[in-house]
Design goal:
Blueprint: E1 4-8, H1 13-24, E2 30-34, H2 39-49, E3 56-59, E4 62-65, H3 67-75, H4 79-84
Parallel strand pairs: 1-2
Antiparallel strand pairs: 1-3, 3-4
């Protein structure tokens, strides 16, 4: 199974939806980086991704983007391929 990392906060609805989508795809382990608990990690996330919103999702060290991009990959049938690699 692929390595999944997600920058998130505790109260982000899109973070919850992203996690639920990944769980439906049989992802059992998601490394979460809580940027609400450690603001310096949000700064690092913004430098790394060029974005300030959460979630920011990586699959196997490839930046996927946020929930919208994740859902789009799923809709286009590409998410399963990414998760299998």
């Amino acid at each position: 199974m692929s390595k999944v990392l997600m920058y998130c906060t505790a109260v982000c609805l899109y973070c919850v939806r992203a996690e639920q989508l990944l769980q439906r795809k049989s992802v059992r382990e998601i490394e979460k980086i809580r940027v609400d608990l450690q603001p310096e990690l949000r700064v690092a996330m913004m430098e790394k991704t060029g974005r300030r919103t959460v979630p920011q999702i990586y699959i196997n060290d490839e930046h996927i983007g946020g929930y919208d991009e994740l859902a789009s990959l799923d809709h286009d049938g590409q998410l399963d391929k990414l998760l299998e690699s």
